[in-house]
Design a protein that fits this description.
With 426 residues, the protein is of the alpha/beta class. The chain folds into two domains: 173 residues, Methioning gamme-lyase, C-terminal domain (Aspartate Aminotransferase, domain 1), CATH 3.90.1150.60; 213 residues, Type I PLP-dependent aspartate aminotransferase-like (Major domain) (Aspartate Aminotransferase, domain 2, 3-Layer(aba) Sandwich), CATH 3.40.640.10. It contains twelve helices and twelve strands. A seven-stranded mixed sheet has the order 1-7-6-5-4-2-3. Strands 8-9-12-11-10 form a five-stranded antiparallel sheet, with helices on one face. Strand 11 and strand 12 form a beta hairpin. Bound molecules: pyridoxal-5'-phosphate (PLP). Pyridoxal-5'-phosphate (PLP) binds next to helix 5.
Length: 426
Amino acid sequence: MTTNEIYQELGVSPAVLAFGESVLSGLTERFAAIDANAELCQAKVLAAMQKNRVNATHFAASTGYGYDDEGRDTLERVYADVFHTEAALVRPQLVCGTHALAVALSANLLPGDELLAVSGKPYDTLEEVIGLRPSPCSLAEYGILYRQIDLLPDGSFDLSAIRSAITKKTKLVHIQRSKGYQTRPTISVEQIRESIRLIKSIRCDIDILVDNCYGEFVESIEPSDVGADMTVGSLIKNPGGGLAPIGGYIAGTKKCVDRCAYRLSAPGLGQEVGANLGLLPSFYQGFFLAPTVTAAALRGAVFAAAAYERLGFRVYPAASEERHDVIQAIELGSEEAMCAFCKGIQQAAPVDSYVTPVPAPMPGYDAPVIMAAGAFVQGSSIELSADGPVRPPYAVYYQGGLTWPHAKLGVLLSLQRMRDAGLIHL
Ligand SMILES: *Cc1c(COP(=O)(O)O)cnc(C)c1O
């Protein structure tokens, strides 16, 4: 059987397939650039693994306290070398991205210190960490002050507002690279460089934290290469390569990372305790695969953007725009279209492909949310997935795809479901 015959069996009609191929024929150069960046990032990861003499003994499980866990310590040096930082904390005890961010913030802020967010409102789950929504154990409860500078309407940093917001109290600056569930543009590492340069020129002792979720390996450099003191993310997104079943990372200066380790375990214990529980093979191999997995997700995002843009939908970023994360927002304009799109993504999944996603209420959201995900790791959003709150402008957030052929099939089936519902005409 040919590929196209199998696609037809999976439900992709010849018309949708032809439309997809015609869109793809215009993307050769974009894909080549994505692959060239993956090659660079793969070389960075390989060089770090070789430098640190990774070997089979590093994959052994440890239990209990995890003293002298060479595998864990070596993995943390590999991360530090890839991010070009003095130190890194990479562990299953950092249970998710939000936890890694909460540890980084609470470890490096003391009562009376001010946290200054300069890329606008942080990701939803951080509202309770900071205490923007009252919450037990929030930073606000411990007397940490918060101030926020929004991005300018064009999505760039408001440098003059940042300059005047910095005072003696300012201790830590928060920058979020990815847009999260907002429609603002994602921030490039070059833009981050510019804002860090300004902040450090005013007070070089202010610590800069960058929420790097969904940004790892999308560009040739990371926020840690342009002066961030802490670069933080989740292992069930890009750097876990789809294999890590849990975890987070904080890469940064020794001063900041040491404090994170004391906050994560206990003062006096720090980085020296924390058993790996047998997860290191997935952490190492996932990090090894992460550059090409990220490239697969990027190809899928560019394909989705180009296909839906050609059909007249608004897409963020636009198909031709440079990318700084793996998220693709598509304004579908109706609940019906969101459901059809998500049904197609779900239908392409290796797991739970027979399930029909429907909108449902979710804690923390003011509208029902629809989610399509058929993932090997629960909640993993580097695996092919789509979701969004069902309210105007009815935007769906498409992301992930461990392999390019899977992402391609997902986009084709989303188009098919939209066409079957009479929502698009090819
Ligand atoms: C996913 C995400 C987080 C939180 O990560 P979790 O692992 O879901 O807790 C934080 N910030 C951004 C920008 C994200 O995309």
